[in-house]
Amino acid sequence: MMFKALVMVCSLADPTNCTVFSDTIKLRETEELCRARIEEMVEVIQMTMPVPVEYKFKCELEESI
Length: 65
Fold this sequence. Notes:
Layout: E1 2-11, E2 18-22, H1 31-48, E3 53-62
Antiparallel strand pairs: 1-2, 1-3
């Protein structure tokens, strides 16, 4: 099993205005590595979306091929 990193970013001004970012680089072998990737993704998102937002995230279990 592999893990896919997902980050959902929602505007604090309008909580229904959300965007989901999915890791396009690769699946991660462990949940720990997936969480580390989420931290990297949030850092990049913060640089491009400096407005007040709320972050939600998860490591989704994926079947490896």
